Amino acid sequence: MAGFRERAQNVTGRPARLHWLVRIDPQIEQCYGSATYALDRYAARIEALRAAGDVIGLHPHLYRWESDRWLVDSSSPTWIEHCMGLAVETYKQHFGEAAEVLRMGDAWLDTTTANLAERLGIRYELSIEPGFRMRHDSDINSRGPLADYRWFARSPYQPDRDALAKPLPPGASRLLWAIPLSSARIVRPDLAGHLDALRRDGWRYRQRPRMLKMYQRGVAPNRFADLLDRALRETPMPYLALAFRTDQRSWDIVGENLQSLLSHPLAGRMDFCTVADFVARHCAAGRPVRR
Fold first, then answer.
1. Is 197 a domain residue?
2. What is the spatial distance between Cα 43 and Cα 32, in angstroms, rounded to a whole number?
3. How many whole angstroms separate alpha carbon 121 and alpha carbon 206?
4. Residue 193 is assigned to a structural domain of this protein
5. Are 23 and 61 in contact (CB under 8 A)?
6. Burial letters for 69-79: b for 16+ Cβ neighbours within 10 Å, e otherwise?
7. What values do phi and psi take at 72, rounded to 5?
8. pLDDT beyond 90 at 219
């Protein structure tokens, strides 16, 4: 990523600042003997990233060891509070300051957890993947509700305290901002694709977007570069929030997509800034959102 930072700065003429969200949760604690394993193992690298202006945030999972297997348990408020509390407190003890950026593992988030995150000091939540719905028949053992963001907002908003998918009503205020990951509508050129989408989502399927996945090339007319262009055109506030893992096996594809990003006609106008700077400059309470 050092090479990407340099290329991004050359293209934009501005400093490039990134976010690194660290696993701090009970699974890490049990497997490695300490919840701070990643912070300790990569301490020098993390400090170098912070010195470059990058932000270190949280990426806790809800894995629980049960019946000789790992289980994602989103059914227990007590367990969720434990996972969140462990992540936030461990971060604070390590860095001497509160974490402000959060992206939950498996893209999972609900209204109660968003409110809990705010009470724990989180200001920017990056879990929402518009258009995404995880199914119970996936390869993840789970108990409780799974992520379902099919009809969520696609632009930054402050979520209602009683309904995560809705923005705050006019006149209300809070500290938490939800920053949905970038998404774009899919072009389905074949009849079979249309019929399958119609079966799953009804006529609303035409409005259902797909997150821009950094580890997939895609096929025309839905290549990463195509989706990138549509994402910038479709949102009322053009912005990009992209995520990928540092242990990604398909780094060649990630590299190609990063190059597509820096080759976009608007790349020279891009600003790779922190989410706090983005919200301060471009977001305002009550701004309408587009679904």
1. no
2. 16
3. 37
4. no
5. yes
6. eebbbbeeeeb
7. -80, 110
8. no
89-99: average pLDDT: 98
The CATH number assigned to the domain holding 139 equals 3.20.20.510
Give the pLDDT mean for 239-250.
Answer: 88
Token pair in block for residue 70: 């790992």
Alpha-carbon gap, residue 274 to 2, rounded angstroms: 17
Contact between 237 and 287 (Cβ < 8 Å)? yes
What predicted TM-score, i.e. pTM, was given to this entire model? 0.91
Q: Is residue 53 part of a domain?
A: yes
Q: Helix H segments across 77-181? A: 77-95, 111-119
Taking only the tens place, the pLDDT of each residue in 40-68 is 999 999 999 999 999 999 999 999 999 89
DSSP 8-state assignment for residue 97? S
**Token couple for 247:** 């242990």
Q: What is the pLDDT of residue 2?
A: 64
**Which runs of E-coded beta strand occur in 149-234?**
159-160, 163-167, 177-178, 183-185, 209-211
